[in-house]
């Protein structure tokens, strides 16, 4: 398999800063698209992976799965895009394409395990996959998205993860004009959840620990903001929401949010991965037929649907553009919830 070197930014160990490095990409095969990366969003999952929060990180690790760029080369059988087109790549770059999930456009639930854009297994080269903090990426056309050309490309990048991760539960639980949706945590995912739920016509609430974000949340389209550390405020919205999307990245108490679900309502966890503390009390769930669910990103068709919806409704992320050399500072700020509301790396800074 022919390959070539590109510049990237990654980390060599759990406690090391990210720094410049060279990585290898495969030469395009018949179905591949080579993309020159213009922008890459900075997801909290990048930080979890760089610091091995979930275990299993293979070093060196090059994060980045909110990728927007331009097509610079296509394989002989590619039909989706041509050289010069804008292209997007999200969290998956491959899956088995044969299992029941893959056959139903649910590649994110591939029964044989999807290939992550980073820290997955590069099927051709054998090593780990490297993400979008790099000059170029080569991806099978099935996993490349068409990007609406009317949108600001830097602000589109976060749609590829933060956008689809919140869009997928909104669609699965059939959110529309009569729905009441609440979002927990106003970060990258949270602010996209507000915009997309609002775009679908729902009443939208934000639960936040940070009173200083109230004005922003209302400007982003929230109808109300509830300070989650204020018990009286939380009690005032008991039984209200049909769907809660919880984006908090670390262990936290879900019980106060369950109380704010309507009968048959669902709290879907998209943020924290792991065991819950304190324990989940089943009493309000049983007495109100309430559910706690999880959801991971979205399939390729659903991601395209979300991008088209954003193109038609002029929805993009609120971003702070940074140079790649500032990524370590950006991670520290993200840990302090000091992001309004997504860092996006201008990949020109890598040159
Ligand atoms: P982010 O930008 O850092 O936002 C997280 C928000 O959660 C913060 O802004 C803060 O909002 C709140 N928060 C942070 N720490 C908290 C704590 N200890 N307790 C309570 N609230 C806290 O992160 P993100 O990029 O949106 O990602 C959120 C999580 O989703 C990450 O764990 C990420 O790995 C995960 N993720 C999952 C998927 C999926 O497919 N399921 C996809 C992408 C990302 P307030 O200040 O408003 O409280
Ligand atoms: Zn992500």
Low-confidence stretches: none
What's the order of the H and E elements? EEEHEEEHEEEHHEHEHEHEHEHEHEHE
What profile does the largest beta sheet have? 7 strands, mixed
Task: Classify the beta-strand content into a percent band.
Answer: 25-35%
Quickly name the level 1 CATH class of the largest domain: Alpha Beta
Termini gap: 26 Å
Q: Any idea how many domains?
A: 2
Overall CATH architecture of the largest domain: Alpha-Beta Complex
**How does the overall form come out from the CA principal axes?**
globular
The percentage helix is 10-25%
SS class? alpha/beta
At the fold tier of CATH, the topology name of the largest domain is Quinone Oxidoreductase, Chain A, domain 1
User: What's the total count of β strands?
Assistant: 17
Average pLDDT taken over every residue: 98
Q: Give me the number of helical elements.
A: 11
Bound molecules: NADP nicotinamide-adenine-dinucleotide phosphate, zinc ion
Descriptive overview:
- It contains 11 helices and 17 strands.
- The relative contact order is 0.16.
- It is α/β, with parallel strands linked by helices and 351 residues long.
- Strands 3, 4, 5, 8, 9, 16 and 17 form a 7-stranded mixed beta sheet that branches. Strands 12-11-10-13-14-15 form a 6-stranded parallel beta sheet.
- The chain has 2 domains: 3-161 and 318-350, Quinone Oxidoreductase, Chain A, domain 1 (Alpha-Beta Complex), CATH 3.90.180; 163-294, NAD(P)-binding Rossmann-like Domain (Rossmann fold).
- 23% of the residues lie in helices and 27% in strands.
- It is globular, with a radius of gyration of 20 Å.
- The chain binds NADP nicotinamide-adenine-dinucleotide phosphate and zinc ion.
- Zinc ion binds next to loops.
């Amino acid at each position: 398999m022919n390959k070539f070197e590109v510049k990237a930014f990654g980390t060599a160990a759990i406690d090391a800063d990210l720094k410049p490095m060279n990585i290898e990409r495969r030469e395009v095969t018949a179905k591949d698209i080579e993309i020159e990366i213009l922008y890459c969003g900075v997801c909290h999952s990048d930080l979890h992976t760089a610091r091995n929060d979930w275990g299993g990180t293979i070093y060196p690790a090059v994060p980045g799965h909110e990728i927007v760029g331009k097509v610079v080369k296509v394989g002989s059988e590619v039909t989706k895009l041509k050289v010069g087109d804008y292209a997007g790549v999200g969290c998956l770059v491959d899956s088995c394409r044969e299992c029941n999930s893959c056959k139903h456009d649910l590649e994110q639930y591939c029964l044989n395990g999807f290939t992550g854009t980073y820290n997955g297994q590069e099927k051709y080269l054998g090593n780990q996959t490297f993400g979008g903090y790099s000059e170029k990426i080569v991806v099978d056309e099935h996993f490349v998205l068409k990007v609406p050309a009317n949108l600001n490309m830097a602000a589109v990048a976060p749609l590829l993860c933060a956008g689809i991760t919140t869009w997928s539960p909104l669609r699965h639980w059939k959110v529309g004009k009569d729905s009441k949706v609440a979002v927990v945590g106003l970060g990258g995912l949270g602010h996209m959840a507000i915009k997309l739920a609002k775009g679908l016509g729902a009443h939208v609430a934000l639960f936040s620990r940070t009173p200083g974000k109230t004005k922003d949340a209302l400007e982003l389209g929230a109808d109300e903001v509830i300070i989650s550390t204020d018990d009286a405020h939380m009690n005032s919205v008991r039984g209200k929401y049909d769907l809660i999307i919880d984006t908090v990245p670390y262990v936290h108490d879900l019980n106060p949010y369950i109380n704010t679900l309507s009968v048959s309502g669902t709290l879907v966890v998209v943020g924290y991965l792991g065991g819950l503390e304190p324990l989940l009390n089943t009493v309000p769930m049983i007495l109100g037929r309430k559910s706690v669910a999880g959801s991971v990103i979205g399939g390729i068709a659903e991601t395209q649907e979300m991008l088209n919806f954003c193109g038609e409704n002029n929805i993009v992320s609120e971003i702070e553009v940074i140079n790649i050399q500032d990524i370590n500072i950006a991670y520290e700020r993200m840990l302090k919830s000091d992001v309004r509301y997504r860092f996006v790396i201008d990949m020109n800074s890598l040159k």
